[in-house]
């Protein structure tokens, strides 16, 4: 089968890109032809198809940096955010030159354009979109407001709540722009044109049904972890590990509060693109703690910490959509302490593959951490359970088989 794989980053920035390159490798290993479509960027991996890539808007990873750009870049960003005929023409050229069986989209909002969906459908090519956030339902894609916390006001209520609450970058202007783009896409029935959606978590699938997307189009296919070490040798040293972006919605303030004034060691691997790390350090200044900020690392650098920690933590305070770090922890035989919230309980089964704590309950969070420090054999046992779970339920073969069944059903081909 010939598959066009779409994502607006052709380099690894986070979970969606790790999935992109992992599934690309698996599809190619199974004899499929994979054709990437992305945006030019100095950090991109090389590709035989990069001449088809869209001109870059900038070299930044995050939309939040747009206020630093030239007017030309901002206008082009608006075009892609709303509907770009330039992108449509360029993507149609790739489609006609390669004649693919289907288009599999990861992330396209803001830096590509929904016009690629029309380009494919006009040529009779099926489109499948893998959902990694809440862009279709929420203008800031998070169901999270920096002041209110979790927020679903736009899901079933007045969409102008986004503007009133300044949900996008705490800005009325940005909120109006993102809401305008969403209203245009709704009027164009973009989601109706997509043949199928791959949804990693049951929780997110439920939200999409609540939003109004046909249940028949939604396919729950969890992601996977490709463990290249068959049976990794690990240790259980007395420290807890957090891996991820250092952002408010990730629950970092609850995390540092749970560890302050204790003798428990915490290592934080990640980066902040909005200065939130400095806010956390300012909060900790003068307080007793054993917390280290280790900065940004690539996955190969993170692995030794995964192999040696007591457990990992995922204290998310937004609807984290099936975070990869949980499967990565399981793959290295580590239990996870996670918020009992959103999709996380689907992965972290309390008392089996980790422990869960009540949303924003620092005392409950601290008690679960304390339990593992007091009972390291339990942390090890749950880590072993987690390892068996990731091998059984989240293997590359399981994911590939379910994905190919969907691809074959949509295209009517058996390849």
From TrEMBL:
Domain Glycosyl transferase family: 229-387
Protein name, as recorded: Glycosyl transferase family 1 domain-containing protein
A molecular function GO annotation: glycosyltransferase activity
InterPro entries: Glyco_trans_1 (IPR001296), Glycosyltransferase_grp1 (IPR050194)
Highest taxon of source: Bacteria
Family matches, as Pfam families: Glycos_transf_1
Organism of this sequence: Phocaeicola vulgatus dnLKV7
